[in-house]
Predict the 3D structure of the following.
Amino acid sequence: MIAADQELAMPRRPRRFAWTNWPARPAAPGWLSAAAAATICLSLTQCGQAPNPEALAANAVPAQQLTFDERFPAAEFSDRFPSSRESFQLHTPSDFAPKPSPFQVASLEPQRPAGRQREDLTTLVSMTSSAFPYFGNNPASDAPFLNVSSGERRGHRSFSGRVYWQDQTYNDSRVLVHVPEQFDVRKPGVIVVFFHGNGATLERDVRDRQMVPQQITGSGVNAVLLAPQMAVDAADSSAGKFWQPGGFKRFMGEAATSLARLTGDPASAKTFANMPIVIVGYSGGFLPTAWSLEVGGISERVRGVVLLDAVYGQLDKFANWIERNRSGFFISSYTRYTARHDQELMAMLRNRSIEVSEDMDRPLRPGSVVFVETEEGITHRDYVTQAWTRHPVRDVLTKMAAAQPPIRIAAGVQAPPNGTSSR
């Protein structure tokens, strides 16, 4: 469905250089001798090729019949021990006393972190309410999602006609959870839910290649990350349990318990269960994003939606959420692959009298709706790390924290009536 997800970067072949001896002295000022010129020509012709063994042997310098002591002189005292002027500076025990911890961003504004500091926590947690395994219907056809069988084995035939088997592609219930070192559950915070694209795994792509956990930490915002595994390494955008009414609500409820346990404070489950949400959908992640907004059961907790080259359909679901939630923000950044659908969604919103901006450099305020087309040369495959800026997820969270007036992240805030803007 999304061919660009399969784009691969071709590795560059390393260049090899043949080493040659330069003449001791040029034949005439400003000119190279004929021998030197021939040597340079030989070097240039060998660029990018394996070294010639005969040339390497010819360039070797003979030992000139030196004695062992002349070739390997014994080390002298000055070579082993520095003089008084070269000695290292002496230190006292007070130089190694513990230093006070530096200030860090622990909330939406810089504050001194409270209590004991810990390291970033990045782990995989199995959740029964995650996208897969899924044995329900596909709402696009109202037919069973697992619509292919081979003996006792069941699978799904995608829109492209390819069959993916349940035990290989739709059986991973794990969720990538990331809690930054500076996160403090006692302060206003936000949960970032990341829906990855096609052909992805949590460790290889979301964690290592797209660096989503690092972007969360790098923003300095009091945020945690949840990234459920969708179809494993497959060209399929199926939403699984997020297709079901209340599916996103059940997922966030189970995640609250897991986050409380992971952070060592079981009593904080209630705080996580009411914490506002920002959904980031990349590429094929548009489908679980759209259905989570439409039937997930907790769209009022969603304070922001970020689509990274991801508007491939479900325009009505995105438009409905934007119209109902004028206190949150919506950002869609796109390449030529999704430009047609993004322009169609912009037209839909303007017809509903919703202001649309096409400038990502403007302040991010409550009710902001921003579409930004990225320039040529920005690739779909690298979009999570390079879109309108480097590390776009980090950029959005930083802008959200700096919004004036602030984007409300306290849970339970009621949105203004439909059609009104808080701008």
Q: What stands out?
A: The longest helix spans residues 247-262. The longest strand covers residues 302-308.
